[in-house]
Write a structure and sequence with these properties.
CATH architecture: 3-Layer(aba) Sandwich
Radius of gyration: 13 Å
Strand order of the largest sheet: 2-1-3-4-5
Helix content: 40-55%
Strand content: 15-25%
Oligomer: single chain
Number of helices: 5
Shape: globular
Structural class: alpha/beta
Order of helices and strands: EHEHEHEHEH
Distance between the termini: 18 Å
Length: 127
């Protein structure tokens, strides 16, 4: 079975490259990287990843939560939030998008791998 492709939505380029390195080390091809919610949505029109790793703070007018909601409605691609934000207000907003996971930065590589595998499995079972 081919490995799932993952799209990274992260406004900090150095952090995005660290995430890419981690994913590739774990065997996941990275389908693309975008810094803004608007770019994510444009790229997902042509790139069809199996999962999106989404930072909550993104460049542009759409934050990660707004972008995740649009992804859920338009593309039915599972989203895992990978973020440093864990306050109650942010969590309450994020929950509404029905994410497949919520991983705090700095992340543990095994924790990220487990979250990805569980999200992919859950999404397959729902289809």
């Amino acid at each position: 079975m081919p490995q799932a492709t993952i799209f990274i939505a992260e406004d900090e380029l150095i952090e995005a490259e660290d995430i890419r390195t981690t994913l590739e080390k774990q065997g996941y091809p990275v389908a693309g990287i975008a810094r803004s919610g608007e770019s994510v949505l444009e790229l997902l029109k042509v790139i069809k990843p199996d999962l999106v790793l989404m930072d909550i703070h993104l460049a542009g007018a759409l934050d990660g939560i707004d972008t995740a909601e649009k992804i859920r409605n338009l593309y039915n691609i599972p989203v895992i939030f990978l973020t440093a934000h864990a306050d109650d207000t942010t969590l309450a907003r994020a929950k509404i998008t029905e994410p497949y996971g919520y991983v705090l930065k700095p992340f543990d590589e095994r924790e990220l791998h487990s979250a990805i595998e569980m999200a992919l499995y859950k999404h397959r079972m729902e289809e």
